[in-house]
Each structure stands twice: as structure tokens, then as C-alpha cells.
Design a protein that fits this description.
By secondary structure, this protein is mainly alpha-helical. It is built from three helices and no strands. It has one domain. The model has no long low-confidence stretch (mean pLDDT 85). It is found in: Cell membrane; Membrane.
């Protein structure tokens, strides 16, 4: 996620920043009014893709861990470790 934010901030053209400085904006105004809106509109697809990936993989990992726990319990019962 952080990498997508970083790359999208770098995707904003330098000319936009120079134009904001030429208009007399300070760094905070430039970031809030020029850079952030453009970077956010560019980064929305990457953020949504990451969220979808996390949701899908969470269910896969939970299924794998459930199987692992159940098999560990079964082997423990078979070996007499768990009563």
C-alpha cells in the first residue's frame, strides 16, 4: 500500500508543482490543493486492487490455518498427547 502511495505522489508532474509555486502557494497549500488531489485520483485503482487482494487472501489463509489446526489436534489425539 505504501508503495502505491509513493509511486502515485511521484507520478504528479513537476510542472504542476512549479506552477503552484509560481502562483505563490507555500508547500502545505501546494500539497493540499495540487499534489494530493491528483495523486489520489491516480492511486484509487491501485488501492482498490490491494483491498480486494487482502479480502480474498484473508479467507484463503484462514482456511489453510483452520486445516492445519484441525490436523494438529487429530495427530495429538492419535498419539495420546491430548486427552
Amino acid at each position: 500500500m505504501a508503495e502505491s502511495f509513493r509511486s502515485e505522489l511521484e507520478a504528479v508532474p513537476v510542472l504542476q508543482m512549479e506552477s503552484a509555486l509560481a502562483l505563490g502557494m507555500n508547500c502545505l497549500q501546494m500539497f493540499r490543493s495540487v499534489i494530493l488531489p491528483q495523486a489520489f485520483s491516480i492511486s484509487v485503482p491501485a488501492i482498490v486492487a490491494n483491498i480486494i487482494f487482502l479480502l480474498k487472501e484473508t479467507s484463503v489463509f484462514s482456511a489453510i490455518s483452520l486445516i492445519s489446526v484441525v490436523l494438529s489436534m487429530a495427530f495429538g489425539i492419535l498419539l495420546g498427547m491430548i486427552k
